[in-house]
Specification:
Blueprint (H helix, E strand, L loop, with lengths): L9 H7 L4 E3 L2 H6 L9 H7 L6 E4 L3 H14 L3 E4 L16 E4 L6 E5 L2 E4 L5 H9 L3 E3 L11 H7 L6 H4 L10 E5 L7 E5 L15 E11 L3 E8 L2 H13 L5 E7 L19 E8 L3 H10 L3 E6 L16 H10 L3 E3 L2 E2 L7 H10 L3 E2 L1 E7 L2 E6 L2 E3 L3 H13 L3 E2 L17 H10 L11 H7 L1
Parallel strand pairs: 2-4, 3-4
Antiparallel strand pairs: 1-2, 5-6, 6-10, 7-10, 8-9, 8-10, 11-13, 11-14, 12-13, 12-18, 15-20, 16-19, 16-21, 17-20, 18-19
The structure holds flavin-adenine dinucleotide (FAD).
The site of flavin-adenine dinucleotide has 38 residues, from strand 3, helix 6, strand 10 and helix 10.
Length: about 450
Protein backbone atom coordinates (compact mmCIF):
# COMPACT_ATOMS: atom_id res chain seq x y z
CA UNK A 1 0.00 0.00 0.00
CA UNK A 2 1.17 3.54 -0.74
CA UNK A 3 2.65 5.38 2.24
CA UNK A 4 0.61 8.30 3.50
CA UNK A 5 1.78 11.82 2.76
CA UNK A 6 0.29 12.74 6.16
CA UNK A 7 2.65 11.11 8.70
CA UNK A 8 1.31 11.78 12.21
CA UNK A 9 0.03 10.27 15.39
CA UNK A 10 -3.39 9.10 14.27
CA UNK A 11 -4.36 8.01 17.80
CA UNK A 12 -4.08 11.62 18.93
CA UNK A 13 -5.94 12.86 15.85
CA UNK A 14 -8.83 10.44 16.49
CA UNK A 15 -8.91 11.36 20.18
CA UNK A 16 -9.38 15.00 19.21
CA UNK A 17 -12.42 13.96 17.15
CA UNK A 18 -14.16 12.91 20.37
CA UNK A 19 -17.43 11.04 19.77
CA UNK A 20 -17.29 11.16 15.98
CA UNK A 21 -17.04 7.60 14.60
CA UNK A 22 -13.67 6.63 13.18
CA UNK A 23 -12.37 3.44 11.52
CA UNK A 24 -8.68 2.51 11.71
CA UNK A 25 -8.82 -1.18 10.78
CA UNK A 26 -6.47 -1.37 7.77
CA UNK A 27 -8.62 -3.79 5.73
CA UNK A 28 -11.75 -1.70 6.22
CA UNK A 29 -9.94 1.55 5.47
CA UNK A 30 -8.51 -0.04 2.31
CA UNK A 31 -12.01 -1.08 1.20
CA UNK A 32 -13.41 2.39 1.87
CA UNK A 33 -10.54 3.93 -0.11
CA UNK A 34 -11.60 2.32 -3.39
CA UNK A 35 -14.37 2.66 -5.96
CA UNK A 36 -15.07 1.10 -9.38
CA UNK A 37 -11.91 2.44 -11.04
CA UNK A 38 -11.12 -1.19 -11.93
CA UNK A 39 -13.42 -0.72 -14.96
CA UNK A 40 -10.27 0.84 -16.41
CA UNK A 41 -7.11 -1.31 -16.55
CA UNK A 42 -5.12 1.93 -16.67
CA UNK A 43 -6.68 3.46 -13.54
CA UNK A 44 -6.60 0.17 -11.69
CA UNK A 45 -2.84 -0.14 -12.05
CA UNK A 46 -2.35 3.40 -10.68
CA UNK A 47 -4.98 3.43 -7.93
CA UNK A 48 -5.41 -0.06 -6.50
CA UNK A 49 -2.79 0.44 -3.77
CA UNK A 50 -3.94 3.90 -2.66
CA UNK A 51 -5.30 3.96 0.86
CA UNK A 52 -6.39 6.54 3.41
CA UNK A 53 -5.18 6.62 7.02
CA UNK A 54 -8.50 6.87 8.82
CA UNK A 55 -12.17 6.80 7.89
CA UNK A 56 -14.29 9.39 9.71
CA UNK A 57 -18.09 9.05 9.73
CA UNK A 58 -19.85 12.23 10.84
CA UNK A 59 -23.60 12.28 11.37
CA UNK A 60 -24.24 16.03 11.17
CA UNK A 61 -23.00 19.24 9.59
CA UNK A 62 -21.62 20.31 12.96
CA UNK A 63 -19.47 17.17 13.05
CA UNK A 64 -18.27 17.79 9.47
CA UNK A 65 -17.24 21.29 10.56
CA UNK A 66 -15.28 19.84 13.47
CA UNK A 67 -13.46 17.37 11.17
CA UNK A 68 -12.67 20.23 8.76
CA UNK A 69 -11.27 22.35 11.62
CA UNK A 70 -8.99 19.52 12.75
CA UNK A 71 -7.80 18.75 9.22
CA UNK A 72 -6.88 22.40 8.70
CA UNK A 73 -5.20 22.63 12.11
CA UNK A 74 -3.01 19.56 11.41
CA UNK A 75 -2.80 20.05 7.61
CA UNK A 76 -4.36 16.65 6.99
CA UNK A 77 -5.74 15.88 3.53
CA UNK A 78 -9.42 14.95 3.31
CA UNK A 79 -11.27 12.99 0.62
CA UNK A 80 -15.06 12.86 0.71
CA UNK A 81 -16.83 9.57 0.06
CA UNK A 82 -20.49 8.86 -0.64
CA UNK A 83 -21.09 5.22 -1.58
CA UNK A 84 -17.84 4.81 -3.54
CA UNK A 85 -19.50 3.82 -6.84
CA UNK A 86 -17.60 6.36 -8.94
CA UNK A 87 -15.72 4.73 -11.79
CA UNK A 88 -12.75 7.04 -12.27
CA UNK A 89 -11.22 6.84 -8.79
CA UNK A 90 -12.91 10.14 -7.86
CA UNK A 91 -13.03 9.25 -4.16
CA UNK A 92 -9.70 7.37 -3.99
CA UNK A 93 -7.29 9.28 -1.71
CA UNK A 94 -4.03 9.80 -3.60
CA UNK A 95 -2.17 11.06 -0.53
CA UNK A 96 -3.74 9.13 2.33
CA UNK A 97 -5.27 11.19 5.13
CA UNK A 98 -8.92 11.27 6.15
CA UNK A 99 -11.67 9.52 4.19
CA UNK A 100 -14.80 11.47 5.12
CA UNK A 101 -17.57 8.91 4.71
CA UNK A 102 -20.91 10.77 4.60
CA UNK A 103 -23.17 7.71 4.41
CA UNK A 104 -24.54 8.44 7.89
CA UNK A 105 -25.73 11.91 6.90
CA UNK A 106 -28.77 10.37 5.27
CA UNK A 107 -31.79 12.43 6.29
CA UNK A 108 -34.43 13.59 3.84
CA UNK A 109 -35.29 16.96 5.39
CA UNK A 110 -38.46 17.63 3.40
CA UNK A 111 -40.11 17.15 0.04
CA UNK A 112 -42.53 19.57 -1.54
CA UNK A 113 -44.09 19.40 -5.03
CA UNK A 114 -41.10 19.67 -7.40
CA UNK A 115 -38.32 20.09 -4.79
CA UNK A 116 -36.46 18.01 -2.17
CA UNK A 117 -34.13 19.13 0.62
CA UNK A 118 -31.74 16.33 1.58
CA UNK A 119 -28.48 15.49 3.29
CA UNK A 120 -25.64 14.32 1.02
CA UNK A 121 -25.49 10.69 2.19
CA UNK A 122 -29.09 9.82 1.25
CA UNK A 123 -29.29 7.09 -1.34
CA UNK A 124 -30.99 8.18 -4.56
CA UNK A 125 -33.45 5.30 -4.33
CA UNK A 126 -34.61 6.56 -0.92
CA UNK A 127 -35.33 10.06 -2.26
CA UNK A 128 -37.25 8.56 -5.20
CA UNK A 129 -39.28 6.29 -2.94
CA UNK A 130 -40.44 9.13 -0.70
CA UNK A 131 -41.01 11.58 -3.58
CA UNK A 132 -43.07 9.00 -5.53
CA UNK A 133 -45.57 8.83 -2.68
CA UNK A 134 -46.33 12.47 -3.60
CA UNK A 135 -46.28 11.91 -7.40
CA UNK A 136 -42.71 13.15 -7.95
CA UNK A 137 -39.30 11.57 -8.61
CA UNK A 138 -35.68 12.59 -9.21
CA UNK A 139 -35.17 14.14 -12.64
CA UNK A 140 -32.29 11.81 -13.39
CA UNK A 141 -30.43 9.02 -11.64
CA UNK A 142 -27.33 6.98 -12.45
CA UNK A 143 -27.84 3.26 -12.99
CA UNK A 144 -26.26 2.86 -9.52
CA UNK A 145 -29.30 4.63 -7.96
CA UNK A 146 -29.84 1.82 -5.43
CA UNK A 147 -26.36 2.29 -3.93
CA UNK A 148 -25.21 5.79 -4.83
CA UNK A 149 -25.72 8.90 -2.67
CA UNK A 150 -27.03 12.26 -3.84
CA UNK A 151 -23.82 14.00 -2.66
CA UNK A 152 -21.69 11.56 -4.67
CA UNK A 153 -23.90 11.94 -7.74
CA UNK A 154 -23.47 15.72 -7.66
CA UNK A 155 -19.77 15.46 -6.74
CA UNK A 156 -18.77 12.84 -9.30
CA UNK A 157 -21.66 11.87 -11.61
CA UNK A 158 -22.98 13.38 -14.80
CA UNK A 159 -26.44 12.11 -15.71
CA UNK A 160 -28.37 8.94 -16.41
CA UNK A 161 -31.89 7.59 -16.52
CA UNK A 162 -34.07 10.67 -17.08
CA UNK A 163 -31.36 12.61 -18.96
CA UNK A 164 -33.40 12.08 -22.13
CA UNK A 165 -35.81 14.64 -20.67
CA UNK A 166 -33.73 16.85 -18.38
CA UNK A 167 -30.19 16.80 -19.77
CA UNK A 168 -27.14 16.50 -17.54
CA UNK A 169 -26.56 17.37 -13.89
CA UNK A 170 -24.49 20.44 -14.84
CA UNK A 171 -27.33 21.92 -16.90
CA UNK A 172 -28.70 25.05 -15.24
CA UNK A 173 -31.70 24.23 -13.07
CA UNK A 174 -30.81 20.62 -12.23
CA UNK A 175 -29.33 21.61 -8.85
CA UNK A 176 -30.97 24.45 -6.93
CA UNK A 177 -28.73 25.00 -3.92
CA UNK A 178 -26.09 23.44 -1.67
CA UNK A 179 -24.59 24.09 1.71
CA UNK A 180 -20.88 23.39 2.00
CA UNK A 181 -18.25 23.22 4.71
CA UNK A 182 -15.01 24.94 3.68
CA UNK A 183 -11.38 24.18 4.59
CA UNK A 184 -10.16 27.71 5.21
CA UNK A 185 -8.08 28.61 8.26
CA UNK A 186 -11.44 29.11 9.96
CA UNK A 187 -13.72 26.56 8.26
CA UNK A 188 -17.25 27.88 7.76
CA UNK A 189 -20.61 26.92 6.30
CA UNK A 190 -21.50 28.59 3.01
CA UNK A 191 -24.76 28.38 1.07
CA UNK A 192 -24.62 28.51 -2.75
CA UNK A 193 -27.71 29.17 -4.89
CA UNK A 194 -28.39 29.67 -8.60
CA UNK A 195 -25.34 29.56 -10.87
CA UNK A 196 -23.06 29.58 -7.82
CA UNK A 197 -23.80 25.86 -7.35
CA UNK A 198 -21.63 25.19 -10.43
CA UNK A 199 -18.60 26.02 -8.26
CA UNK A 200 -18.91 22.62 -6.59
CA UNK A 201 -21.14 20.70 -9.05
CA UNK A 202 -19.02 17.83 -10.49
CA UNK A 203 -15.84 19.03 -8.75
CA UNK A 204 -14.94 15.62 -7.23
CA UNK A 205 -15.12 17.13 -3.73
CA UNK A 206 -11.97 19.18 -4.42
CA UNK A 207 -13.28 22.54 -3.25
CA UNK A 208 -15.97 22.03 -0.59
CA UNK A 209 -17.81 19.39 1.43
CA UNK A 210 -21.50 19.38 0.50
CA UNK A 211 -23.62 18.99 3.62
CA UNK A 212 -27.10 19.72 2.28
CA UNK A 213 -28.75 19.97 -1.14
CA UNK A 214 -31.92 21.39 -2.67
CA UNK A 215 -32.82 19.24 -5.67
CA UNK A 216 -35.55 19.80 -8.28
CA UNK A 217 -37.91 16.88 -8.96
CA UNK A 218 -39.87 15.67 -12.00
CA UNK A 219 -43.46 14.48 -12.21
CA UNK A 220 -43.48 10.69 -11.78
CA UNK A 221 -45.13 8.43 -14.38
CA UNK A 222 -45.91 4.72 -14.24
CA UNK A 223 -42.86 3.52 -16.18
CA UNK A 224 -43.16 0.31 -18.19
CA UNK A 225 -39.87 -1.49 -18.92
CA UNK A 226 -39.34 -2.82 -22.43
CA UNK A 227 -36.81 -4.48 -24.69
CA UNK A 228 -37.20 -4.21 -28.45
CA UNK A 229 -34.86 -6.13 -30.77
CA UNK A 230 -33.76 -5.39 -34.32
CA UNK A 231 -31.93 -7.36 -37.04
CA UNK A 232 -29.78 -4.41 -37.98
CA UNK A 233 -27.76 -2.16 -35.64
CA UNK A 234 -28.32 1.11 -37.49
CA UNK A 235 -32.08 0.50 -37.51
CA UNK A 236 -31.96 0.08 -33.72
CA UNK A 237 -29.93 3.31 -33.38
CA UNK A 238 -32.32 5.22 -35.65
CA UNK A 239 -35.28 3.82 -33.72
CA UNK A 240 -33.64 5.15 -30.51
CA UNK A 241 -33.23 8.55 -32.12
CA UNK A 242 -36.84 8.56 -33.39
CA UNK A 243 -38.19 7.60 -29.97
CA UNK A 244 -36.07 10.32 -28.37
CA UNK A 245 -37.52 12.86 -30.80
CA UNK A 246 -41.12 11.68 -30.42
CA UNK A 247 -42.23 14.48 -28.14
CA UNK A 248 -45.68 12.95 -27.73
CA UNK A 249 -44.30 9.67 -26.33
CA UNK A 250 -43.24 10.02 -22.72
CA UNK A 251 -40.07 8.11 -21.91
CA UNK A 252 -37.28 8.04 -19.34
CA UNK A 253 -34.65 5.76 -20.86
CA UNK A 254 -33.52 5.00 -24.42
CA UNK A 255 -30.49 2.69 -24.45
CA UNK A 256 -29.28 0.91 -27.60
CA UNK A 257 -26.90 -2.05 -27.37
CA UNK A 258 -25.29 -3.64 -30.42
CA UNK A 259 -24.85 -7.40 -30.45
CA UNK A 260 -23.00 -9.10 -28.67
CA UNK A 261 -23.71 -6.76 -25.72
CA UNK A 262 -27.20 -8.28 -25.14
CA UNK A 263 -25.48 -11.67 -24.69
CA UNK A 264 -23.85 -10.28 -21.50
CA UNK A 265 -27.25 -9.72 -19.82
CA UNK A 266 -27.62 -13.05 -17.97
CA UNK A 267 -31.23 -12.59 -16.67
CA UNK A 268 -32.46 -11.82 -20.20
CA UNK A 269 -30.49 -14.51 -22.06
CA UNK A 270 -33.52 -16.69 -22.71
CA UNK A 271 -35.56 -13.92 -24.27
CA UNK A 272 -32.91 -12.01 -26.23
CA UNK A 273 -32.48 -13.62 -29.65
CA UNK A 274 -28.96 -14.54 -30.78
CA UNK A 275 -27.33 -11.90 -32.99
CA UNK A 276 -30.01 -9.21 -32.52
CA UNK A 277 -29.44 -5.63 -31.39
CA UNK A 278 -31.49 -4.44 -28.42
CA UNK A 279 -33.21 -1.23 -27.28
CA UNK A 280 -33.69 -1.12 -23.48
CA UNK A 281 -36.44 1.36 -22.69
CA UNK A 282 -38.59 2.94 -20.01
CA UNK A 283 -41.82 4.34 -21.46
CA UNK A 284 -44.81 5.83 -19.63
CA UNK A 285 -47.75 3.41 -19.68
CA UNK A 286 -50.18 5.97 -21.14
CA UNK A 287 -47.84 6.16 -24.18
CA UNK A 288 -48.12 2.42 -24.91
CA UNK A 289 -50.24 2.71 -28.06
CA UNK A 290 -48.18 5.33 -29.94
CA UNK A 291 -45.03 3.53 -28.78
CA UNK A 292 -46.21 0.31 -30.44
CA UNK A 293 -46.83 2.21 -33.69
CA UNK A 294 -43.25 3.50 -33.66
CA UNK A 295 -41.86 0.00 -33.06
CA UNK A 296 -43.93 -1.27 -36.00
CA UNK A 297 -42.61 1.52 -38.24
CA UNK A 298 -39.02 0.40 -37.55
CA UNK A 299 -39.73 -3.34 -37.80
CA UNK A 300 -38.73 -4.00 -34.17
CA UNK A 301 -39.83 -6.92 -32.06
CA UNK A 302 -40.97 -6.29 -28.45
CA UNK A 303 -39.53 -9.30 -26.62
CA UNK A 304 -39.84 -8.01 -23.04
CA UNK A 305 -42.58 -5.93 -21.43
CA UNK A 306 -42.88 -5.40 -17.70
CA UNK A 307 -45.75 -3.26 -16.46
CA UNK A 308 -45.04 -0.33 -14.15
CA UNK A 309 -46.56 -2.27 -11.28
CA UNK A 310 -44.41 -5.36 -11.93
CA UNK A 311 -41.38 -3.11 -12.40
CA UNK A 312 -41.37 -2.25 -8.70
CA UNK A 313 -40.01 -5.78 -8.02
CA UNK A 314 -37.21 -8.00 -9.34
CA UNK A 315 -34.83 -7.22 -12.18
CA UNK A 316 -34.74 -3.51 -13.02
CA UNK A 317 -33.99 -2.73 -16.66
CA UNK A 318 -32.10 0.43 -15.68
CA UNK A 319 -29.46 -1.81 -14.11
CA UNK A 320 -28.45 -3.01 -17.58
CA UNK A 321 -27.99 0.47 -19.02
CA UNK A 322 -25.52 3.33 -18.67
CA UNK A 323 -22.41 2.01 -16.95
CA UNK A 324 -24.20 -1.10 -15.75
CA UNK A 325 -23.86 -2.24 -19.35
CA UNK A 326 -20.08 -2.09 -18.83
CA UNK A 327 -20.45 -3.92 -15.50
CA UNK A 328 -22.32 -6.84 -17.13
CA UNK A 329 -19.91 -6.97 -20.05
CA UNK A 330 -16.97 -7.15 -17.65
CA UNK A 331 -18.67 -9.85 -15.57
CA UNK A 332 -18.69 -11.91 -18.75
CA UNK A 333 -15.16 -10.99 -19.84
CA UNK A 334 -12.99 -8.96 -17.44
CA UNK A 335 -10.63 -7.88 -20.23
CA UNK A 336 -13.38 -5.63 -21.64
CA UNK A 337 -13.31 -1.93 -20.86
CA UNK A 338 -15.16 1.14 -22.19
CA UNK A 339 -15.18 4.64 -23.59
CA UNK A 340 -17.55 7.59 -23.09
CA UNK A 341 -18.32 9.57 -26.21
CA UNK A 342 -20.30 12.65 -27.11
CA UNK A 343 -21.60 12.53 -30.69
CA UNK A 344 -22.62 15.64 -32.61
CA UNK A 345 -26.31 16.03 -33.33
CA UNK A 346 -26.98 14.29 -36.65
CA UNK A 347 -30.32 12.98 -37.92
CA UNK A 348 -28.51 10.32 -39.95
CA UNK A 349 -26.10 9.20 -37.20
CA UNK A 350 -23.30 9.02 -39.78
CA UNK A 351 -20.44 9.02 -37.25
CA UNK A 352 -22.10 6.28 -35.18
CA UNK A 353 -22.39 4.21 -38.36
CA UNK A 354 -18.81 4.94 -39.43
CA UNK A 355 -17.30 3.84 -36.10
CA UNK A 356 -19.53 0.74 -36.03
CA UNK A 357 -18.15 -0.46 -39.37
CA UNK A 358 -14.60 0.81 -38.81
CA UNK A 359 -13.94 -0.86 -35.44
CA UNK A 360 -16.08 -3.98 -35.83
CA UNK A 361 -15.86 -6.17 -32.76
CA UNK A 362 -13.12 -4.08 -31.08
CA UNK A 363 -15.41 -1.15 -30.13
CA UNK A 364 -18.99 -2.32 -29.70
CA UNK A 365 -21.61 0.44 -29.77
CA UNK A 366 -23.70 1.21 -26.71
CA UNK A 367 -25.69 4.43 -27.03
CA UNK A 368 -27.69 6.37 -24.46
CA UNK A 369 -29.88 9.10 -25.93
CA UNK A 370 -29.80 12.34 -23.91
CA UNK A 371 -31.07 15.86 -24.23
CA UNK A 372 -28.11 18.19 -24.59
CA UNK A 373 -28.24 21.94 -25.16
CA UNK A 374 -31.86 21.64 -26.31
CA UNK A 375 -31.05 18.88 -28.84
CA UNK A 376 -31.23 15.11 -28.69
CA UNK A 377 -27.86 13.40 -28.99
CA UNK A 378 -26.55 9.88 -28.67
CA UNK A 379 -23.98 9.52 -25.96
CA UNK A 380 -21.69 6.53 -26.42
CA UNK A 381 -20.57 4.16 -23.67
CA UNK A 382 -18.92 1.77 -26.08
CA UNK A 383 -17.54 -1.55 -24.90
CA UNK A 384 -13.87 -1.82 -25.90
CA UNK A 385 -11.74 -4.96 -26.28
CA UNK A 386 -8.60 -3.79 -24.49
CA UNK A 387 -5.19 -4.68 -25.84
CA UNK A 388 -2.91 -1.99 -24.44
CA UNK A 389 -2.82 1.71 -23.55
CA UNK A 390 -1.24 2.73 -26.85
CA UNK A 391 -4.08 1.12 -28.85
CA UNK A 392 -6.69 2.64 -26.52
CA UNK A 393 -5.20 6.09 -27.14
CA UNK A 394 -5.22 5.40 -30.89
CA UNK A 395 -8.94 4.56 -30.70
CA UNK A 396 -9.58 7.77 -28.74
CA UNK A 397 -7.61 9.81 -31.27
CA UNK A 398 -9.51 8.27 -34.18
CA UNK A 399 -12.81 9.30 -32.58
CA UNK A 400 -11.64 12.83 -31.77
CA UNK A 401 -10.17 13.47 -35.23
CA UNK A 402 -13.61 12.76 -36.70
CA UNK A 403 -15.55 15.13 -34.43
CA UNK A 404 -16.64 12.91 -31.55
CA UNK A 405 -15.77 14.08 -28.02
CA UNK A 406 -14.21 11.49 -25.72
CA UNK A 407 -14.99 11.99 -22.01
CA UNK A 408 -12.03 9.87 -21.08
CA UNK A 409 -12.94 7.40 -18.31
CA UNK A 410 -9.31 6.29 -17.99
CA UNK A 411 -8.12 9.30 -16.00
CA UNK A 412 -8.81 10.41 -12.42
CA UNK A 413 -7.98 14.04 -13.24
CA UNK A 414 -11.09 16.23 -13.31
CA UNK A 415 -10.15 18.31 -16.34
CA UNK A 416 -8.81 15.41 -18.42
CA UNK A 417 -12.06 13.42 -18.18
CA UNK A 418 -15.44 15.02 -18.78
CA UNK A 419 -14.62 18.67 -18.12
CA UNK A 420 -12.07 19.03 -20.94
CA UNK A 421 -10.77 22.39 -19.71
CA UNK A 422 -9.81 24.02 -16.43
CA UNK A 423 -12.96 25.48 -14.90
CA UNK A 424 -11.65 28.82 -13.69
CA UNK A 425 -14.64 29.33 -11.39
CA UNK A 426 -14.05 26.01 -9.64
CA UNK A 427 -10.32 26.75 -9.36
CA UNK A 428 -10.89 30.22 -7.87
CA UNK A 429 -13.40 28.70 -5.49
CA UNK A 430 -10.78 26.20 -4.34
CA UNK A 431 -8.18 28.95 -3.94
CA UNK A 432 -10.59 30.79 -1.64
CA UNK A 433 -12.13 27.93 0.34
CA UNK A 434 -9.35 25.30 0.38
CA UNK A 435 -6.22 27.47 0.35
CA UNK A 436 -3.99 24.69 1.73
CA UNK A 437 -5.09 22.26 -1.00
CA UNK A 438 -6.30 19.64 1.48
CA UNK A 439 -9.44 18.47 -0.36
CA UNK A 440 -9.00 15.39 -2.58
CA UNK A 441 -5.44 16.37 -3.59
CA UNK A 442 -4.13 15.44 -7.03
CA UNK A 443 -7.50 15.47 -8.80
CA UNK A 444 -7.72 19.10 -10.03
CA UNK A 445 -5.09 19.92 -12.65
CA UNK A 446 -5.85 23.67 -12.47
CA UNK A 447 -4.87 23.68 -8.79
CA UNK A 448 -1.43 22.17 -9.07
CA UNK A 449 -0.63 24.13 -12.22
CA UNK A 450 -1.56 27.35 -10.38
CA UNK A 451 0.78 26.35 -7.52
CA UNK A 452 3.89 25.72 -9.63
P1 LIG B 1 -18.69 8.51 -4.64
O1 LIG B 1 -18.11 7.57 -5.66
O2 LIG B 1 -18.53 8.15 -3.23
O3 LIG B 1 -18.10 9.97 -4.87
C1 LIG B 1 -18.05 10.54 -6.15
C2 LIG B 1 -17.27 11.86 -6.07
O4 LIG B 1 -18.04 12.81 -5.38
C3 LIG B 1 -15.94 11.77 -5.31
O5 LIG B 1 -15.01 12.63 -5.92
C4 LIG B 1 -16.27 12.29 -3.93
O6 LIG B 1 -15.14 12.86 -3.29
C5 LIG B 1 -17.33 13.32 -4.25
N1 LIG B 1 -18.30 13.51 -3.17
C6 LIG B 1 -19.08 12.55 -2.60
N2 LIG B 1 -19.87 13.11 -1.67
C7 LIG B 1 -19.58 14.44 -1.65
C8 LIG B 1 -20.03 15.54 -0.87
N3 LIG B 1 -20.97 15.41 0.05
N4 LIG B 1 -19.46 16.76 -1.10
C9 LIG B 1 -18.52 16.94 -2.05
N5 LIG B 1 -18.06 15.92 -2.81
C10 LIG B 1 -18.58 14.70 -2.62
N6 LIG B 1 -22.59 7.90 -13.09
C11 LIG B 1 -23.49 8.63 -13.77
O7 LIG B 1 -23.43 9.86 -13.74
N7 LIG B 1 -24.49 8.02 -14.49
C12 LIG B 1 -24.63 6.66 -14.55
O8 LIG B 1 -25.58 6.16 -15.12
C13 LIG B 1 -23.67 5.87 -13.86
N8 LIG B 1 -23.72 4.52 -13.90
C14 LIG B 1 -22.80 3.77 -13.22
C15 LIG B 1 -22.84 2.37 -13.26
C16 LIG B 1 -21.89 1.60 -12.60
C17 LIG B 1 -21.98 0.11 -12.65
C18 LIG B 1 -20.86 2.25 -11.87
C19 LIG B 1 -19.85 1.45 -11.12
C20 LIG B 1 -20.80 3.62 -11.82
C21 LIG B 1 -21.76 4.39 -12.48
N9 LIG B 1 -21.74 5.80 -12.41
C22 LIG B 1 -22.65 6.54 -13.11
C23 LIG B 1 -20.79 6.49 -11.52
C24 LIG B 1 -21.36 6.62 -10.06
O9 LIG B 1 -22.05 5.46 -9.69
C25 LIG B 1 -22.32 7.76 -9.91
O10 LIG B 1 -21.80 8.96 -10.38
C26 LIG B 1 -22.79 7.93 -8.45
O11 LIG B 1 -23.78 8.90 -8.40
C27 LIG B 1 -21.69 8.29 -7.48
O12 LIG B 1 -22.27 8.34 -6.19
P2 LIG B 1 -21.47 7.82 -4.93
O13 LIG B 1 -22.30 8.10 -3.72
O14 LIG B 1 -21.06 6.41 -5.10
O15 LIG B 1 -20.22 8.79 -4.96
Amino acid sequence: MTASANPRNWDEFCAELGDIETIRDRAQVAKLSQDYNHFSPILQSILQEKIGDVVVRPTSEAEVLKVAQLCVKHRVTLTVRGAGTGNYGQCVPLEGGVILDLSKMNQIRRIEPGVAWVEPGVKLVAIDKQARDMGWELRMVPSTYRMATIGGFIGGGSGGIGSINYGQLRDRGNLHAVRIVTLEDEPQIVELRGDEVQNVNHAYGTNGIITELEIPLAPAYPWAELIVTFDDFMTSAKFGQALGRSDGIIKKLVCICAWPIPSYFAPFRDILPQGKHAALLMVAEPSWEPFQELVKEFGGDICYHKSAQEATKGTAIAEFTWNHTTLHARSSDSSLTYLQTGFPEDPELKLVEHFYHHFGDEVIPHLEFVRSGGNLRPSGLQIVRFTDEARLNEIIRYHEERGAIIFNPHTYILEDGGMKAIDVRQLQFKQKYDPHGLLNPGKMRGWWESQS
